[in-house]
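Appendix B: complex inputs.
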Amino acid sequence: MRDSTRVTFLPDGQTIEVEEGTSVLAAAAHIGLAIASPCGGNATCGRCQVRVEQGIWEPNQAEQRLLTSEELAQGFRLACQGRCSGDIVVFVPEFSRTAIHQIAVEGIGAEIEVDPAVRKIFLRLPAPSVQDLRSDFSRLLAGIGSPDLSLDSDPGFLREAATAIRRANFRVTAVVADSKVIAVEEGDTSADCYGAAVDIGTSTIVLYLIRLSTGERVAVAATPNPQSRHGEDVISRVQFARSQPDGTARLQALVRDALNRLIGQACKQAGVLPNHIWEMVFVGNSCMTHLMLGVPPEGLGMAPYVPSFSCAQYVPASALGLRINARARAYVLSGIAGFVGADTVGVILATRLWQDDGLRVAVDIGTNGEVVVASGGRLLAASGAAGPAFEGARISSGMPAVAGAIDTVRIEDEIAVTTIAGAPPRGICGSGLVDAAAELLRMGVVQPDGRLGPAEPGALPAWLAERVHGKGAGASVELVSAKQSGGKPVKLTARDFRELQLAKGAIAAAISLLLQKTGASYDDVSELLLAGAFGNYIRPASALAIGLLPPVPLERIRPVGNAAGVGAQVALLSRPLRRQAEEIARAVEYVELCDEPGFYDRFAELMALAPSQAVGRGG
Amino acid sequence: MRDSTRVTFLPDGQTIEVEEGTSVLAAAAHIGLAIASPCGGNATCGRCQVRVEQGIWEPNQAEQRLLTSEELAQGFRLACQGRCSGDIVVFVPEFSRTAIHQIAVEGIGAEIEVDPAVRKIFLRLPAPSVQDLRSDFSRLLAGIGSPDLSLDSDPGFLREAATAIRRANFRVTAVVADSKVIAVEEGDTSADCYGAAVDIGTSTIVLYLIRLSTGERVAVAATPNPQSRHGEDVISRVQFARSQPDGTARLQALVRDALNRLIGQACKQAGVLPNHIWEMVFVGNSCMTHLMLGVPPEGLGMAPYVPSFSCAQYVPASALGLRINARARAYVLSGIAGFVGADTVGVILATRLWQDDGLRVAVDIGTNGEVVVASGGRLLAASGAAGPAFEGARISSGMPAVAGAIDTVRIEDEIAVTTIAGAPPRGICGSGLVDAAAELLRMGVVQPDGRLGPAEPGALPAWLAERVHGKGAGASVELVSAKQSGGKPVKLTARDFRELQLAKGAIAAAISLLLQKTGASYDDVSELLLAGAFGNYIRPASALAIGLLPPVPLERIRPVGNAAGVGAQVALLSRPLRRQAEEIARAVEYVELCDEPGFYDRFAELMALAPSQAVGRGG
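Resulting structure:
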């Protein structure tokens, strides 16, 4: 047993007793004081500077090399080189402390520790000498100090890195992505390190620009997906890609140009150079990720709807034509199946769906309603083919959720609607449709079986009966008159209700079937998370009233915003969570609904416009 | 213990007793009968066809999928699927046997087993179904069956592979490089698989075109290194790269264009499409490999002569502008130090220098003489700075070893010379210089201390004395008169002998010092291998006479041809040996001669033109 000795760290004033000979860096770690040591205590980065306030500490060769004579004269030494002996007191300046950042994740409330896959490490490497004949790259790798490190294999990298090391006289910043050195820059550029997280939605693309060292979100930019000109939904884009010459390449070019515009906008907003973006992380449904990478979405266009790839992809950003640093990477999160893509994995990641004990359900309603159920360590996923009704398509007065779209409907003594941005009503969007259906159902204007018109003649108040025109398949109800709208009336037809029934039935059946597979009933659901724009705008009570959502108490329903986009940000900022997302994607049990016995019966049952418990139970 | 059963393989007629249930493929392996199974017995490649001659073997699902109904009717089955039960007899057709090729390596006499890093595997993958929803790429990877397999991350690869799988209806050929799938082609292209091994010499570039599946060398092409226009030797090219604008890029372009010409020539010779070349393996000194990759050879131009990289490099061939398959790889062998490059590792690999028990020495004489000594499991390497004398430069009548160069010299009653290609003598090349020096030394025209002229007046026969002109530093000896040459006379001057002394002294001192470091003496040398063109043409007796080589018995001296180029071919054809070369490169002990105490004394001593034992001993 060696003698013990005491070290005190200022200005914190903490003292620790350690064995003689322990390094000062290790002693600090014992009491949870994080001193920066990107080189791992290898005496190559010179970052772990402390000032000796009391005690004797002669500078060794490494310290003489890495510290200026001025710094040495002021008493600065390297914590990794100092050995505790006698009682010593050191001052740890702010610039030597590591930043362990926790960032709060929007809409989720959880915090993550910032530990990005891409990081910059400034190095002061020893120059070659007859006693140290290692090649420049061996020197570099040893300086970074992590084991299993490799170099990028691009000749451009080799040329630029070799040149930078020599021109900067062995004072360089290494850009490390996971365990690969992807760039070497002259001098200390460690402050210029950004990443972008992108959600490529079928209708909207959102880009978040993030400072990687702190996790701070410095800008957000969004744009409609310009691929829409070749089809509103996934299936029509797949058809375009398959049927048109260069269809895939043309769709890829559209999304690439949109991404470059967003990069430009976000960088301008934040005063960041695009060249300082080192990684982009993408989520999106399988069709969007295939098209972004230029992979023909062939298999997604025919049964059994199999993607070309599901696992995560790393590709050089330059090969995608992204105008960020030429050595930057693009990362696409894992998907699960043809119609349960990387966006769903993003939702799972953002909500940590797997972490809780309770039975949790996440639903992302769009053209496809992706449903994930977490229960007792298992994750099950399915996709309900809702069709585009909730996005306003195939509905006679339907429109996307933009200015002038009816988004809420209330019926008391009159039909009261609100519109997005308060503009004159031009049509109805998904949340308005669900609201309208719930209110018309309550008032008896529409029946649970989807029939439009009163259950029996005279059952409606006269003012309301007047709004219903025609009969049977030709019936319609006028929500807003031509006079009120100042243009065309906004109506819902019997056919619109049929579309709604198909859409809600698909989602409800997916939820019900997954719950049944876990052996759970509706009552067991501890939390029902609504992801995506639709989930944010929908009125949960209305969704419950028509049985779009399973019958859980209102307080257990929680909209979680653009969880897919948040998932992309989490993957950008946390290496461990990114890895976990890949494992989870592999572990999720995908349920192909069409192949499940009894699915179509359940679907038919759940097409009723009524709270689900009345007609079906999971389990 | 299960029951045993017997299987007989025809036409070989071998019978083996195995446990019931053993696969036929495994049973064949037991008796050393190699049935092709590139998918590893995974029932995806369909290559292991055997015909059942006796016994019952109903085709299973996999066999029904992979074999045509005609094949099934003829009794063909898959050896990986058949289970031994009852006594069975199978016929193994020629096309189901794997080719375990042994190729003899030129100049070395050793054989290697063909096991290239790049291989093609034809696959018949099952099509997706509702019961099998794996993505196309998961299906592909499972079909190849090797564990730890990954896909190339280039978006071009992803696009092309996805397209090929769908267009060829899941009948594709995977191109696998080590454990990465680098391409997927439609249908069965497994026959079209070539590689090229290249020795980039400072003066000559040689390319060997090789069929990877058999190891067969189908063409050889060579060209002078066009970089020579910017400097004959390594140092002047480093200077050019450092001092000229785009110097490195211009030198890289010259070698790239030369390589593309060689590829074109070799492919034309062999009737092979350049597109069917999937890997190129390169050796060369550090300057050549840096320039080939476009890496500035900065560090090689100043003490302590450290390269930017020493370890092996894999880069995409397309990024180097090589006109072979766009998805092909280029591999550069590991180097050891600034002046002991990948060419020396090639020599070590070609000669298996590490494998023998005896003390073996390999010497590659060029501008630098690289020396490697293998002894008791250790490998030591050094570079003797011989200068360009052996390549004919800095010698007054010196010239490269081309037509008209004097390559042998004999002195009896006259000075008899031969020239390369029998052309009229225009000058003298390295081997001629060594020969001339040995003969002039024997006749007393030159003295061991390098002085030109007889030891004492009248010591020479009159006819020979007439050939010596001038005195002291101004002296010269005429080997060929103007009359004989039909042009200028070919002379050697006192200054030429000084150059020769410096050159031979550097090589001899390097050998001597490395031997000393292993504790061995000259007598212990069991084999002295001479690599490179110079080693092929030099007369060993003459090299011994002037002490260029250490005093070992003549029969222990063995020229081994272009061993560096052979090493490149070995690395191209053998994955295990390539891996071993990388390990060996790391394990070689590099000796920096300038830093060795006593080196300069030894160098001065060994400058004498005399057999080495007279003046120095290793050990």
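The CA atoms of residues 3 and 276 of chain A lie 50 Å apart.
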